[in-house]
Amino acid sequence: MSKPNNVIGNRYEFVYLFDVTNGNPNGDPETGNAPRIDTETGIGQVSDVAIKRAVRDYVALSRENRAPDRIYITDKAVLSMVRGPAYEGLADEEKQDKQRAVMLAQQFMCRNFWDVRAYGAVMSGKTNNCDRVTGPVQITIANSVDPVFTPRWTIARLAVETEAEREKERTFGSKYVVPYALYRCEGFISAFEARKSGFGEADLDLLWEALINMFDHRHSANRGKMNAQKLIVFKHDNALGRARSQDLFDLVGIKRVTDGEVSARKFSDYEVHIDKAHLPKGVELIEML
C-alpha cells in the first residue's frame, strides 16, 4: 500500500557522493563528448541536468511512467501535446477565463507529473499554456574530489555500414575514459516551494530511492561502472530551517587515506567524515547510504 503523499513540512539539504570507474559520466557534446572538466583546475564535473535526468529515468522506469508519477521531460517529447490533457478536463466556462484555466491546468500538471512537483518546469506556450512552476528540489553541479585524468582511447571499427565500404581500410573511432573519480554534489529541498507544487512525503521517498538505485539501471559501454556511494541528509525540524546550508555541507569532509602520490582507483581510497559533534540543534542527520 502506497504512503499518503502529504506535502512535506520540513526543509532538507543533502550531500550525494557517486563515483565512476573506467567510464565517461557526462560527456560534453561541444568537445567531442569528452568528460566535462573545469579547465582551470582539472576537476571533473557532472551537470545538474544529467543528475536530474538520471533521477527522472529511474522514476519513469520504477513507476512505469504513470500518474501521479509521470515524467514531463522525456526524450523527444512534444511538450505542448503532453500538456494537452491538462486542458481536456476543463469545463467550457473555465476555459473562457484564461487566468483560471492556466491555474487549473498547472494544478493538473503538478498532480500528475513527479518531475514538475519536484523540479518545477517552464510550461508556458501558445498551446496548452500552464505557465511555470518553481520546484522545491534543486541540485548542484557535481565536482570530483580530485582532478581527473581523461585518456582518449582509439577503437577499431570492424563492421561496415554499406557494401561499398567493405573493401576500404579499417576505420577507427575514439572514446574517453575516466579511470576513476569520486564526485560530490549537494541538494536543497524547500518546504515553502513544496506547498506550491504539492511535493509530498511519497515524492521525497521516491527521490531518495532514485538517488540510491538509479545507476543500476543506466549501465552502458560509455558510462563504465557508476555507483552511488553516500547519501547524507540533513532534516530541519521546521520549514524555515535551523542552520545555513553551507554550514551543514561543511560538516561532511572527504580525504584520501591512501598514498596521495598514487591516483585513487576505488572508493575505499577515501574516507568520508561527518562532524556530528557540531550538528546544529533542530537538525537531524540521516545517512541514507
What does this 3D model show about the protein?
The protein has helices at 48-62, 79-82, 84-88, 92-96, 98-112, 114-119, 191-197, 201-213, 245-249; strands spanning 12-23, 27-28, 34-35, 43-46, 120-122, 132-134, 137-139, 142-147, 152-157, 171-176, 178-189, 225-236, 252-256, 270-274, 283-287. It is of the alpha+beta class. The protein has one domain. The strands form five sheets. Strands 1, 4, 7, 8, 11, 12 and 15 form a seven-stranded antiparallel sheet that branches. It has a two-stranded antiparallel sheet with strand order 2-3. A two-stranded antiparallel ribbon has the order 5-6. Helix 1 crosses helix 8. It starts with 11 loop residues before the first strand and ends with a strand. 31% of the residues are buried.
Task: Give the arrangement of secondary structure elements.
Elements: E1 12-23, E2 27-28, E3 34-35, E4 43-46, H1 48-62, H2 79-82, H3 84-88, H4 92-96, H5 98-112, H6 114-119, E5 120-122, E6 132-134, E7 137-139, E8 142-147, E9 152-157, E10 171-176, E11 178-189, H7 191-197, H8 201-213, E12 225-236, H9 245-249, E13 252-256, E14 270-274, E15 283-287
Antiparallel strand pairs: 1-11, 1-12, 2-3, 4-8, 5-6, 7-11, 8-11, 9-10, 12-15, 13-14
Mean pLDDT: 93
N-to-C CA distance: 24 Å
- The number of domains is 1
User: What is the overall number of helices?
Assistant: 9
Q: How many E-type strands?
A: 15
What's the SSE pattern? EEEEHHHHHHEEEEEEEHHEHEEE
**Which structural class do the helices and strands define?**
alpha+beta
Q: What overall form do the CA principal axes indicate?
A: flat
Radius of gyration over all CA atoms, rounded: 22 Å
SS strand fraction: 25-35%
Largest sheet: 7 strands, antiparallel
Helix content class = 25-40%
Poorly predicted runs are none
